[in-house]
């Protein structure tokens, strides 16, 4: 009886430890040791006006109040001097995380402080910027192009009836994968497709930049037993957030 | 400190834990310029902005037990500044040393809170130079509030800057602005920067003294004094003396030759025989 209890207890403790370990490795739970704020536990006696009080030993006993950076620091507003992917175009007044501004944008000369002088300086050439290619392309175009280039689309078609692959078929398949595209943006391969297999088609953004997207045409039957189960690569490959995958592995 | 004059008349700020001190003797006081001494006195007497404690803004508070009105007395927490703080920019932070108690009747234990430092590259627009400096997160926030490193260095008072390195950079910037020696190859950029920081332009003679320690200042003063009064060679002095002497007595030399004095075998009568 005792043995079993001990075993269970040890298992429990192990489990707890493992949880602690994983949590520590996942997120940095240590306090950020920044500016400390303290106060006197026993404030000194009142002195005469214009004279300093005499400090005794007990007055040196301090009480911890807080750290300044316990709360999250607010985002900083800055003006971009160049096109930055996913942030904005030249002359934009944007609010970004302080970490991004201090470590990347400001040292590289991509952004400046939003001081009143700088705001006035960048106001003047606002009209000239509208005709630039970047501004017409948009802020997030580059990132979406990058994501589409690593995509593997599944295009389900009927296994019971004959068909010819259409633009709308691809548009619907893209919508299922949470990508909204108009018909004009899609260009199909020159040969007409009537059989299942791998295909590549083109997607253009604002008529300026285009990207080739890979995909697979699959057959779906009315009788689900006839459907083939294929081993395909994932629809979206990770482009930015790789650390999330690591977290999932450690948890499991 | 007893020899220092400012100690007698003006109250020096509480807790003499400063990053560095200005102190001179009565003999050397005359060498230093007035504006330099004024800055030193300001540094020694001015209270810094509170960093590690929060002062009570009220003048009076009610007593919690009796409800009686009590005067508020803000006593700053003593902060230590080691020698290393003069090599970085800690933004007024320092080492908070004291005791800690868990509750009223517990024994007190010594406790030290230290600042967290990180080395960062900071760019100066005026000097067109990058610095690798140990800073705290508070410094980075202050730089953001001032819209850049240059503004932070130039606008903050010496008491709050709290670093010899910061004052050295400040002096370098002020001299560069005063002499207009920035961006020698790019006149457009130079005018732009001079326009931006026009409030900080001061005469060169004053800018050169900002943030110098007393030994440095004395060395500078003595060098300047030596330059104005160059040492005169003895040769020149003797020539003048000789000329004066000749003018008084004439060219004829009546004294005996020194060889006759040295030679023991010669006699005076011999000399007299030769003469005729």
From TrEMBL, chain A:
InterPro entries, A to Z: Ribosomal_bL9 (IPR000244), Ribosomal_bL9/RNase_H1_N (IPR009027), Ribosomal_bL9_N (IPR020070), Ribosomal_bL9_N_sf (IPR036935), Ribosomal_bL9m_C (IPR054302)
Predominant subcellular localization, coarse grouping: mitochondrion
Annotated localization: Mitochondrion
GO cellular component terms given for this protein: mitochondrion; ribonucleoprotein complex; ribosome
Pfam families on file: Ribosomal_bL9m_C (PF22078), Ribosomal_L9_N (PF01281)
Keywords: Mitochondrion, Ribonucleoprotein, Ribosomal protein, Transit peptide
Residue ranges occupied by any Large ribosomal subunit protein bL9m C-terminal domain in the UniProt entry: 141-213
Gene Ontology terms describing biological process: translation
Domain Ribosomal protein L9, residue spans: 78-122
GO terms assigned for molecular function: structural constituent of ribosome
Source domain of life: Eukaryota
Family: Belongs to the bacterial ribosomal protein bL9 family.
Protein name, UniProt field: Large ribosomal subunit protein bL9m
Organism field: Pomacea canaliculata
Automatic annotation (TrEMBL), chain B:
An annotated Gene Ontology molecular function: structural constituent of ribosome
Keyword Ribosomal protein attached: yes
Keywords linked to the UniProt accession: Ribonucleoprotein, Ribosomal protein
Cross-referenced InterPro entries: Ribosomal_bL28, Ribosomal_bL28/bL31-like_sf
Cellular component terms per the entry's GO annotation: mitochondrial large ribosomal subunit
Keyword Ribosomal protein: yes
Family: Belongs to the bacterial ribosomal protein bL28 family.
Protein name: Large ribosomal subunit protein bL28m
Provenance organism: Pomacea canaliculata (Golden apple snail)
């Amino acid at each position: 009886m005792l043995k079993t209890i001990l075993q269970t207890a040890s298992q429990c403790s192990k489990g707890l430890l493992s949880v602690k370990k994983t949590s520590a490795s996942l997120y940095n739970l240590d306090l950020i040791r920044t500016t400390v704020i303290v106060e006197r536990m026993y404030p000194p006696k009142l002195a005469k006006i214009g004279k300093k009080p005499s400090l005794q030993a007990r007055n040196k006993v301090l009480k911890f109040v807080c750290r300044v950076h316990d709360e999250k620091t607010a985002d900083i507003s800055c003006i971009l001097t160049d096109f930055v992917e996913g942030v904005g175009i030249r002359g934009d007044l944007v609010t970004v995380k302080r970490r991004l501004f201090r470590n990347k944008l400001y040292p590289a000369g991509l952004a400046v402080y939003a001081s009143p002088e700088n705001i006035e300086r960048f106001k003047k050439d606002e009209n000239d910027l509208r005709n630039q290619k970047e501004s017409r392309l948009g802020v997030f175009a580059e990132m979406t192009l990058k994501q589409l280039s690593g995509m593997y689309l599944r295009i389900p078609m009927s296994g019971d009836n004959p068909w010819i692959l259409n633009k709308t078929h691809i548009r619907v398949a893209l919508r299922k994968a949470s990508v909204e595209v108009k018909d004009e943006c899609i260009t199909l391969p020159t040969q007409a497709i009537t059989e299942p297999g791998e295909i590549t088609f083109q997607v253009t953004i604002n008529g300026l930049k285009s990207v080739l997207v890979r995909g697979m045409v699959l057959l779906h039957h009315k009788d689900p037993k006839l459907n083939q189960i294929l081993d395909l690569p994932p629809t979206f490959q990770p482009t930015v957030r790789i650390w999330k995958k690591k977290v999932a592995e450690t948890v499991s | 400190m007893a020899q220092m004059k400012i100690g007698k008349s003006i109250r020096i700020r509480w807790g003499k834990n400063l990053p560095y001190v200005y102190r001179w003797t009565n003999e050397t006081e005359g060498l230093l310029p007035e504006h330099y001494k004024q800055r030193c006195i300001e540094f020694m007497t001015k209270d810094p902005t509170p960093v590690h404690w929060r002062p009570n803004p009220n003048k009076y508070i009610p007593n919690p037990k009796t409800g009686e009105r009590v005067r508020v007395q803000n006593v700053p927490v003593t902060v230590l500044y080691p020698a290393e703080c003069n090599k970085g920019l800690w933004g007024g932070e320092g080492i908070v040393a004291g005791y800690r108690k868990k509750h009223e009747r517990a024994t007190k234990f010594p406790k030290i809170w230290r600042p967290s430092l990180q080395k960062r590259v900071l760019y100066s627009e005026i000097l067109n130079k990058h610095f690798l400096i140990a800073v705290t997160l508070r410094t980075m926030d202050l730089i953001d509030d001032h819209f850049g490193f240059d503004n932070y260095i130039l606008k903050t008072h010496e008491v709050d800057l709290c670093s010899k390195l910061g004052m050295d950079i400040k002096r370098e910037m002020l001299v560069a602005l005063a002499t207009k020696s920035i961006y020698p190859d790019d006149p457009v950029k130079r005018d732009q920067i001079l326009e931006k920081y026009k409030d900080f332009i001061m005469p060169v003679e004053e800018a050169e003294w900002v943030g110098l320690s007393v030994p440095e200042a004395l060395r500078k003063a003595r060098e300047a004094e030596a330059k104005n009064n160059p040492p005169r060679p003895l040769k020149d002095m003797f020539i003048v003396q000789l000329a004066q002497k000749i003018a008084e007595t004439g060219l004829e030399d009546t004294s005996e030759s020194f060889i006759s004095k040295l030679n023991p075998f010669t006699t005076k009568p011999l000399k007299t025989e030769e003469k005729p």
